[in-house]
């Protein structure tokens, strides 16, 4: 009976957070299919460690850290570098008022090194404090500050350097 309760709690949590996890994963990796793989791997790890995770004071933070660590660990392996990216833009799940601006930002975000991208996503998309992002990344708050600063500067440079598209108004 305890296993059924445990599984029900796990299923309820993952069902309620799957959309959010997928969005964070997409912002980290820039590819919806890869984001789905990251979420699946994170959910699998979460299930294995559910007894410990369910006792965490901040379950969302625990899960987010698992997702970021999974992403960063994947960046260190040579497998992801061998995959061929098609250059096809992902399907957009929701209507966006500034679709082209959003795509420009996603492209610029994808060009950031993994740790800078993770710091920027955690700080400005997940709205974490410096200390919370440092905990999620497993590094010092000074490292988060420098990674965020460098990431934002690179985003600004990448977005300013892009030529204006003909017929597009800013």
Description:
- With 170 residues, this protein is mostly helical.
- It has two domains: 1-91, Rna Polymerase Sigma Factor, Chain: A, CATH 1.10.1740; 99-170, Winged helix-like DNA-binding domain superfamily/Winged helix DNA-binding domain (Arc Repressor Mutant, subunit A), CATH 1.10.10.10.
- The chain is built from nine helices and no strands.
- The chain has helices at residues 2-29, 32-48, 50-53, 59-75, 79-82, 99-110, 114-125, 130-137, 141-161.
- Helix 6 packs across helix 9 and helix 7 packs across helix 8.
- The model has no long low-confidence stretch (mean pLDDT 83).
- It holds the Pfam family Sigma70_r4_2.
Features of the shown structure:
170 residues; RNA polymerase sigma24 factor; mainly alpha; transcription regulation; Rna Polymerase Sigma Factor, Chain: A; sigma factor activity; RNA_pol_sigma-70_dom; DNA binding
